[in-house]
Design brief:
This protein is of the alpha/beta class and about 850 residues long. It contains 30 helices and 29 strands. The strands form 8 sheets. The protein has an 8-stranded parallel beta sheet with strand order 16-15-14-5-2-1-20-17. A 6-stranded antiparallel beta sheet has the order 21-23-24-29-26-27. The chain has a 3-stranded antiparallel beta sheet with strand order 6-13-12, with no helix packed on it. α13 (about 335-350) crosses α18 (about 445-470). The radius of gyration is 28 Å and the shape is globular. The two termini are about 30 Å apart.
Length: about 850
Amino acid sequence: MKVPTATYRIQFRNGMTFDRAAALVPYLKRLGISHLYASPVFTATTGSTHGYDVTDANEIDPAIGGRAGFERMVRALKAGGLGLILDIVPNHMAASLENPWWRDVVENGENSRYARHFDIDWSRRLTLPFLGDTFEKVLEAGEISIRLDPKTGRPALAYYETFYPLTPSSYAGGETAVLATTDKAAIARLHDQQPYRLMSWRDMPRELSYRRFFEIAGLVGVRVEDGSVFDDTHHLILELVHGGMVDGLRVDHVDGLADPKGYLERLRHEAGPDCYIIVEKILGEGEHIPAHWPVSGTTGYEFIAAVSDVLIDAGKLDTLRETYQRVVGHAVDMEAELRAAKLMMVDNNFAGEVATLLKLAMQIQQVEDRESALAEASVRSALRELLVAFPIYRTYGTREGLPTEDRRVLGEVLDTVRNGPNAPPLHALAFLERILIGDVEQSVAGRASVFRTRFQQLTGPLMAKSMEDTLFYRHHVLLALNEVGSEPLPRAFSLARFHGAMETRLQREPDALSGTSTHDTKRGEDARARLYALSEAPEPWAEATARWAETNRALISALDDGPAPEPPVEWMVYQALAGVWPANFDPGNLEDLKALEERFAAYVGKALREAKLRTNWGDSNEAYEKAVIGYARALLSPGNQTFLADFSDALRPFIHAGLVNSLTQTIIKLTAPGVPDIYQGSEGLDFSLVDPDNRREPDFETLEIWLSDSERRPSTNEEWQSGRLKQHVTAILLRLRQEAPTLFRKGEYLPLGAAGKRAENIVAFARADTEDALILIAPRLVFSAFHTASPQLGADRWAETEVSLPEKLAHRRYRDICAGKTMHFGEQVALSRVFADYPFALLLAE
């Protein structure tokens, strides 16, 4: 297997085509990339901005160049010596009539060849939750009629411009009469004859008859655990792998599958031993991917959490938390808040999935003879508490039951529930335990297996929607920590934790991706790096936000349900704006100010709905949203110069500290265990917000110009603030990774200690093997140094601070590969010496 030395993620669509990607190959080669990492390229719904809504898994999307364009890109990659990693989507497809398999199922129901391709409950009619109201109401309003489908020429139930095909048996021999039908009762009777039932999108949480991706009805679960379904959905994928066009696969949302281990074993067998395979998997605190999975690791969300241990000031974080609680007006119990978010999901958003589990459990209970009859209310209570208490995305039980490690996890969860303040009836909890571990009568083993699978497919979405898409938008102590792969619960932050995580990473997942920005992160890596600095300066930040709130008090709207925005949302707005604010931004540039306003207003609107407090996606509060978004827009109004000038001035030290944090974060990613993944454009500065903002195309033209002048070492303030220095460091280290791949893949990870005046402001470690050694020394927690106009840290600031070298690294000559200087070191490295040109050192042994 050829393991990448570095990947570069490209988001196709939104203007990015195969030919445009091919044109970037010379740039990527010069940057030091080994593999292009492509977002899904298979045919997706018309106008798709991301490609995860696949309509044809065996066709390359004509919208981005089709098969011919794809092959041209592959030829360009090969000519440049680059490989290709493809993002594949086995868990779901688009529940769209553009999807020929789905259309066939809608038209023919259980008789469709593809009826078992999708995860549908065929004990009832297929539900299609795409109406604005109930079928009866939209029919009465005249919004549904019978018309010829212009694409097929066959009768259909027409809802505006969507044509739901009629099953042939419902109009056989009477097409003309059916098309002439206008009587509403007759149309209703015809609808009743269909294998599907049109219904309101509002009824989806409780009545949906198919497994969806999270809460998205437009994405239907695919049953790849079925061998024939696997074959049908992977035909083209495997053709591209076997044909040498694709070198690796990234498996999207592996936890959504019925049997991830079985799927990955089949994929490995079919793709062969040389295919690099990684999985999108969010790991909980202390969790690792199962050791027996035949993959190289994860896509690296956990790496983001590990880096925060370096850049968070643990000693001052409590002060920031206390300040935020004063703004909120009460103490915040995050465990209670997480429970409340999960309960909301269990009782509302995923009520249908929970009802299915309850139904299965009661069917099993009726057959089982070991227990006295259990009341449904008792089982429901136990199921609810078990789901809410689950601390990780899922376990990986199969028909045979739970593996040993997962039984341990389940045992810990059960103990938590039994001993908690909301303990359900213990006999009901014991009953669910037996189902999950497989200790049931043989006659109900099949149903228990289905229960186990459904339970495991629910705990992941429940966790994601409760935490990442609810709690992260409700509580805003430090937005940098509200990130995919992290948890909102308070924890300790320390260098020791970081070093321990990297040592474990080298041992368990040396070939996993190390990401700092992705298409799914809540904000760009440089926005996050800047916001980390707030943990170093809670008092200045609190004073500034209080001052800004007072300056803009007249912009707050008084609504019947309270002020808009309320104080916690104000805190969020200012912090989010601080993260997205360009490093060299001039608020007097009206064009740039307007562009920032549009991006920021869109983010604020999404954040309000995701929080699900005073508005949400299903039941929007227009007055509230208008008021808060209006507030955000007014902040960036050209007429609000008093605030803009104050904000820009107060933000300056945070901007400078953020630029240093950004370089430290980048250097760590490029030298620590794992394969560094560069998200498109983030080799420069990435201050993007959550999607769709983070899917904007970067300024490749400027990036190429910068790199073409790579022989000149960036040194000016402007080059720090533009991102050119970050790109320069990235290119230097990526090229070194190509020259010494064994050093970074298998070399030891050696934490290095610092001593002296600035010892707490340094992170240092080395990578070493029998032939090579690289020492990394980078700054951390340096906010207090930045009340000047420069983001640079002079060497004099690092006097009386040294990094100690172990015997295998001491008494050797080193070349600083960024500064270009060669030095000899004994047992210590004096920072004032190696930080003369840049406030970091990359020392390669000679």
